[in-house]
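Need a sequence for this fold. Nothing fancy.
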């Protein structure tokens, strides 16, 4: 059971509730304080009153008062706001806690002023992306509306444009100078710009991962054979020679500069009698100066036959 002496020793370190700004941390600290005094159950639930005149009633009343006093001292700066919001002082810590949970956003110290100040003087550059900034602006409007009620659409549109004035100057000038801005139109424009920005960022990141060799492939492409500069004796029938001799390496013309095989003195497996300018037998007999018939081991370029007389 809690007593007044224990309460006095810790009253100086009771966590103070400032409003919505420190509500989450206050809940944790206040819960620890109530548990230290073993009275947290009177805040968590509405404990029924025992029969009067019994020891249980005495204990219930004392512990309940300790819990109530701890809460009152922790939120003393918000009492007027609670009373104006509809809370009634009945000495019940459970009722007081429920009133704080319900009215905290309305009784927070300068809550409305702080929200409006952030919206009107804030900067979208405080957020990483346009989506984050737009989400914060919509949240601020919802909070202010819940406390103060609805306002004109033009009022909210001006606040939104001011919020993005530095980050989106062209959008700001467009709506301020050209027409009366509407909240939905401004939101749609900012959302579209946010989508385009994210797409551009993703594309730039993707391009950085492409190998650089792909970007220079056009400059390193080998020149095709038909595009090479060739000497005048080889220009005629050059393309035809390429197409007709591509089937077998032994049929590649030796006058073709595009031939990739080693230069050979004689065509492989050629029958001398098949050469068109070989003289006939009668012509050979009729030639008195004929001494021998010799198959030349080496032919010079442009020589018509294969016999020397």
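Here you go.
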């Amino acid at each position: 059971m809690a007593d007044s002496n224990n309460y006095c020793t810790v009253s100086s370190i009771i966590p103070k509730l400032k409003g919505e700004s420190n509500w989450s941390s206050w809940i944790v600290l206040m819960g620890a304080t109530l548990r230290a005094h073993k009275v947290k159950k009177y805040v968590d639930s509405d404990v029924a009153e025992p029969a009067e005149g019994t020891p249980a009633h005495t204990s219930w009343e004392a512990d309940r008062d300790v819990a109530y006093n701890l809460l009152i001292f922790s939120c003393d700066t918000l009492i007027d706001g609670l009373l104006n919001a509809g809370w009634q002082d009945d000495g019940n810590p459970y009722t007081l806690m429920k009133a704080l949970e319900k009215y905290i956003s309305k009784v927070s110290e300068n809550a409305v002023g702080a929200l409006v100040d952030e919206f009107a003087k804030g900067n979208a550059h405080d957020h990483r992306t346009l989506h984050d900034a737009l989400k914060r602006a919509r949240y601020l409007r919802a909070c202010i509306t819940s406390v103060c009620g609805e306002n004109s659409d033009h009022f909210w549109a001006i606040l939104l444009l001011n919020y993005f004035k530095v980050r989106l100057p062209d959008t700001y000038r467009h709506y301020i100078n050209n027409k009366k801005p509407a909240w939905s139109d401004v939101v749609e424009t900012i959302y579209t710009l946010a989508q385009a920005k994210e797409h551009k960022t993703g594309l730039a990141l993707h391009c950085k991962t492409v190998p650089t060799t792909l970007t220079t492939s056009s400059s390193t492409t080998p020149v095709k054979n038909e595009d090479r500069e060739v000497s005048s004796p080889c220009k005629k029938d050059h393309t035809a020679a390429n197409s007709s001799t591509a089937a077998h390496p032994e049929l590649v013309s030796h006058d073709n500069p595009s031939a990739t095989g080693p230069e050979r003195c004689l065509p492989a497996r050629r029958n001398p009698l098949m050469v068109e300018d070989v003289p006939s037998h009668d012509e050979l007999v009729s030639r008195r100066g004929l001494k021998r018939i010799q198959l030349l081991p080496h032919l010079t370029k442009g020589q018509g036959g294969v016999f020397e007389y």
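For context: The beta strands are 294-295, 307-308.
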